[in-house]
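ok so dumb question maybe but i'm new to this and my supervisor (M.) told me to 'just get the structure for ParB-like nuclease domain protein' and walked off. so i did the thing. is this what she meant?? sequence i used:
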Amino acid sequence: MLSSLCLIPACNITIHEAHEEFSLEKIKSAILSEGYLRHPILVTKMNDGRYLVIDGAHRFQALCSIVLKSLHKL
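this is what came out, is it supposed to look like this??
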């Protein structure tokens, strides 16, 4: 059940799984060509105040990679 929609700083998000390079590259390519995410990244708040990705770890990592590459170009 979706209880709320909000923006969370990436530094407050943690993932629980390693990425698969092929999947990551495929998702990065889709985000860059389409300009948006098809599905939101779902998280749950943990006891320490941080958030854990429960669906969308590859999407989260792809977005982080895209943003870092964009910052390096500035």
